[in-house]
Specification:
single chain, alpha/beta, Substrate Binding Domain Of Dnak, Chain:A, Domain 2, Rossmann fold, 4 domains, 16 strands, binds iron/sulfur cluster, binds Broken Fe4S4 cluster
């Protein structure tokens, strides 16, 4: 397949061609070798849960050996995938909670509870006493309560109380208010084992519950605690794509998800002693760049450059310019070890729960984190002399990241500060028609980045504000869509006017996969602020991911649906179509229960049309599709209000 059919990213196309010439394999080549992929798997109709199987449903064999029908099998597979995604996000959250507690106890000297304002807010929310107590004392209590959310024996998720009262009522009525994260994941596995839950709707109900334990539990806690530990992101500039690598510097890639490691490597790369050592080996400096969600975390907080997203991870190594790639958890392809073996690149795993056969492992221990990071940087410096041929594509774009809930509130909220009023008003007056989350991965089944960027262009052209996370953010940034200078030209007149007034792009980079919870909190705030209905399902919003890869993306999709949103995925990545009943429930029936629903569309332009129709339908239902007096809040208005 031609490189242009594999990726819409020019830098990636160049590297794909170079790898092909060198006879090296990447994910696209391996996908080709897998073709034709298993039709049963695609439809979700294969079951290998027990040793009487594996069973697959065909016209001839309509039932598994145990008698399970296609609805049960598809629903069980769907639930298991979501539970795995929830486990991944939430285990990330648990690790953050542990480091958070160690930091507050003074056992992890290299970390600090940076955002004390956010800490105090969390403390208040969790009922932790703050009067006459030190930051660290409060931090220990907040951390312990957060850690408890993963395994507490009774009660429901504390963060779920952030949802509007109407939403909580819907969840309670349906019995899907999430309890401890571990309990929901365990119950998912129990229910879906042989001979347990065999009512597809009951299984799908639990899919909502376990997904909510992620969105309004584990992942939300990961985001909140990371903000306190590393600082709540505020808008800042950075650069994105492989052109950020430097031919004359030691290049280190941090890849994976948890900022626990990458924050320290970023700090170590500024160390004078190490910079001196780099000089001694003939390098002009040390460049740290990220791939995947770790990259988003670093760009959001420090403006550290991004080398690429999920499908760039192997291509980056093929530049020959990477001295060391440090990986932690999630979305780390095993294929990296093969590509790294063709170059001088040292691949190092750092999480004890995520090792790779034959690859050096350096445990990152929060009690000695900076020293471990320095050790890794030193390994990279030592490896500089082993470089062979280097080819770095020139492409890179200026990007703006750092849109947390707090910064959106600040930028769009004007001087009301903790108020979404001006944003709500601009949605009501129609300058902004609605808000869409363009999220998720890049999948070799589609040309890399193409659906995310095409869809985003269509949406902003039609005055829809786009909030983006994960690898979709990097896709958009590579094409200049998170940069106000470039992207405002592409925005519709209403959206452009609002964004220009406050100085932001029409596409806001909101962070990593766990940071989708920032979108949930924003939706909740839109309702609380008033004028856009009483529940999140009434909002003119949607979520979309046409290049989904990970089980985490299914978990995210389901928690958005269960929070009242329309969620659109591509047919190629939605393994439920083998059951008419399951599909019908997730596409239609679930809306009566939870207000949101799934939809399938692979074409990004048609997906945009579908979303716009949905948003206009919601606007009609709210009665806001009429001319209204326009009010914009620019810097002048803000200043006036501050004085007041
Ligand atoms: Fe087959 Fe039923 Fe066992 Fe699944 S649980 S493998 S359908 S016998
Ligand atoms: S890294 S989950 S490929 S967004 Fe979060 Fe990217 Fe998807 Fe992994």
């Amino acid at each position: 397949m031609d490189a242009k059919e594999r990726s819409s990213d020019k830098a990636a196309q160049e590297m794909i061609e170079r790898m092909a010439k060198a006879g090296q394999q990447n994910a696209w080549d391996r996908l080709d070798l897998q073709k034709p992929q298993c039709g049963f798997g695609k439809q979700g109709v294969c079951c290998r849960i027990c040793a009487m199987g594996p069973c697959r449903i065909t016209k001839k064999a309509k039932l598994g050996v145990c008698g399970a029908d296609v609805d049960t099998i598809v629903a069980r597979n769907f639930l298991r995938a979501i539970a795995a995604g929830v486990a991944a996000h939430s285990d990330h959250g648990r690790t953050v909670a542990e480091v958070f507690i160690a930091t507050a106890r003074g056992e992890a000297a290299d970390y600090k509870l940076k955002d004390t304002t956010k800490l105090f807010k969390l403390a208040e929310e969790m009922g932790v006493e703050t009067k006459d107590r030190s930051v660290n004392e409060i931090g220990v209590d907040v951390g312990l309560i957060a850690l408890g959310e993963f395994g507490k024996p009774e009660g429901t998720q504390l963060m779920a109380r952030r949802a509007p009262a109407s939403r909580q009522e819907i969840w309670n009525k349906l019995g899907v208010t999430p309890r401890a994260v571990d309990r929901e994941v365990t119950e998912s596995l129990h229910r879906s084992t042989m001979g347990v839950d065999q009512d597809y709707k009951n299984i799908l109900n639990h899919a909502s519950r376990v997904a909510l334990a992620d969105g309004w539990g584990g992942a939300m806690l990961a985001t909140e605690l990371q903000d306190v530990l590393f600082g709540t992101p505020y808008p800042g500039r950075g650069e994105v794509n492989m052109g950020v690598l430097k031919k004359d510097e030691v290049n280190i890639i941090v890849h994976g998800h948890e900022p626990i490691l990458s924050e320290m490597i970023a700090a170590a790369s500024q160390d004078d002693e190490l910079l001196g050592e780099a000089k001694k080996v003939g390098a002009n400096g040390i460049t740290v760049a990220g791939t995947c969600c770790t990259a988003n975390e670093l760009l959001m907080r420090h403006g550290i450059p991004i080398a690429g997203n999920f499908l760039n991870q192997e291509l980056v190594i093929a530049t020959g310019a990477i001295e060391l790639m440090a990986v932690d958890v999630q979305c780390v392809m095993q294929g990296l070890s093969t590509v790294a073996s063709c170059y001088h690149t040292k691949l190092v795993t750092t999480a004890d729960k995520a090792k790779m056969s034959g690859i050096e492992h350096v445990t990152i221990d929060e009690r000695d984190a900076l020293n471990t990071a320095k050790k890794l940087v030193r390994m990279a410096i030592d490896n500089y002399k082993n470089r062979g041929d280097v080819y770095i594509p020139k492409d890179k774009k200026a990007a703006v990241g750092g849109f947390s809930f707090e910064s959106i509130n600040y930028m769009l909220g004007g001087s009301f500060r903790s108020s979404f009023r001006p944003l709500n008003d601009n949605i009501i007056n129609g300058r902004i028609r609605g808000i869409v989350g363009v999220v998720g991965c890049t999948n070799p089944k589609m040309p890399q980045d193409l659906t995310h960027t095409t869809l985003t262009r269509e949406l902003i052209k039609r005055d829809i504000l786009v909030l983006t996370t994960g690898c979709a953010t990097i896709a958009c940034a590579k094409q200049g869509l998170t940069n106000p200078k470039e992207a405002l030209e592409l925005a519709g007149p209403g959206l452009r006017e609002v964004c220009e007034a406050v100085g932001i792009a029409p596409v806001l980079a909101c962070g990593s996969c766990v940071d989708n919870t920032r979108l949930l909190v924003s939706c909740s705030e839109l309702v609380r602020e008033g004028g856009l209905g009483n529940d999140m399902s009434e909002l003119p919003v949607a979520g979309v991911c046409l290049e989904s890869v990970s089980e985490k993306a299914l978990a995210i999709g389901q928690y958005f649906v269960a929070s009242g949103a329309l969620v659109v995925f591509a047919e190629e990545v939605m393994p439920i179509l083998g059951s008419e009943n399951v599909s019908d429930y997730l596409f239609n029936g679930i809306e009566k229960d939870l207000g949101g629903h799934w939809a399938i569309e692979s074409d990004p332009v048609k997906a945009a049309e579908m979303i716009i129709e949905h948003i206009e339908g919601k606007r009609d239902a709210l009665g806001i599709n009429k001319e209204a007096e326009r009010k914009l809040y620019d810097m002048e208005d803000r200043r006036a209000l501050t004085v007041e």
